[in-house]
Design a protein that fits this description.
InterPro entries: F420-G6PD/mer, Luciferase-like_dom, Luciferase-like_sf. By secondary structure, this protein is of the alpha/beta class. It is built from 9 helices and 13 strands.
């Protein structure tokens, strides 16, 4: 059993389809109006049906007042880290401190290569992500000029800025032991998805993060654990994350107090607006109360 006892947070994961702008904005407005914490936007620039994630994030932040937004997760090979840091800091300033940064090493290598991005093998992609974390941190720093000489990225005295409006959280969407350990040493959060990492796989990955965090002098509880949860709220049980509200509350509470997750970002098939209403109005408040009751 693992409960890092972090505040429980909730969000939504609308699909960035270019033909569904009104639906996306309805979902985002609902999240903002009902007091959710985050909006996550996936980043697949090679997907022809998708809007550009950073353009959409800017629009989401411009049309909301309190909810935070983040790329879930940014495609590093197609987003050079110095420019990624600049874009993130700029949106953070423009939104009054409501941008967080999710970052991934980049899957779908052939599609990345088709857009003239670097085609890296898994080891190269991992090394590039480790370097990118350093570049981004330094581009948000107060250094006079940043120099960096890595295998994937090089900076030759660039002046960082503007500084973000708040300390932007750097969350990694990673799965392998090398990058999970790097996360424990240097990042602020972990973003797995229920479709790739089922609950039974979470403890072993937490252990890698926690061991590296402790070795670096960090408390494992400093690291946020964000879970993209994909499913449906249905009248009758149909399996994990597919069932009635009570089932969702039980499963999310277990994920929080036994499996260590603290932030739940909900996505559902076809971006059914009724599903998002049920999430925000029924599942979220009941889960907050259940976790609080369990902890006391």
């Amino acid at each position: 059993m693992t409960d890092y006892r972090r505040e429980i947070r909730f969000g939504v994961f609308p699909t960035p389809n270019a033909d569904s702008v009104e639906r996306i904005m309805d979902i985002v407005a609902l999240a903002d109006r009902t007091g959710l914490d985050v909006v996550g936007i996936q980043d697949h620039p090679y997907q022809r049906r998708f809007l550009d994630t950073w353009s959409l994030l800017a629009t989401v932040l411009a049309r909301t007042e309190r909810v935070h937004a983040f790329p879930d997760v940014a495609n590093l090979p197609l987003r050079p880290p110095a420019m990624l840091a600049k874009a993130a800091a700029s949106l953070d300033v423009l939104s009054g401190g409501r941008l967080e940064l999710g970052l991934g090493a980049g899957g779908f290598r052939d599609a990345i290569g088709a857009m003239d991005g670097p085609v890296r093998d898994p080891a190269q992609a991992a090394s590039a992500l480790v370097e990118a974390i350093q570049v981004i941190r330094r581009m948000w720093s107060a250094e006079r000029a940043v120099r960096f000489d890595g295998s994937a990225y090089r900076l030759a005295g660039v002046r960082p800025g503007p500084p973000p409006a708040h300390p932007i959280a750097l969350w990694l969407g990673v799965l392998g032991p090398r990058l999970l350990a790097e996360l424990g040493r240097s990042a602020d959060g972990w973003i797995p998805s229920s479709s790739y990492v089922p609950p039974e796989a979470l403890p072993a990955k937490h252990a890698v993060i926690d061991e590296a965090a402790a070795a670096a002098g960090r408390a494992p509880s400093e690291i946020r654990r964000i879970y993209n949860v994909f499913g449906s709220i249905t009248p009758a049980p149909r399996g994990f994350l597919h069932g009635p509200v009570d089932q969702w509350v039980d499963e999310l509470t277990e994920l929080a107090v036994e499996y260590g997750m603290d932030t739940f970002v909900f996505g559902t098939e076809h971006d059914d607006l009724d599903q998002f209403h049920r999430w925000t109005e029924e599942v979220v408040p009941a889960t907050r109360a259940a976790v609080a009751a369990h902890r006391t």
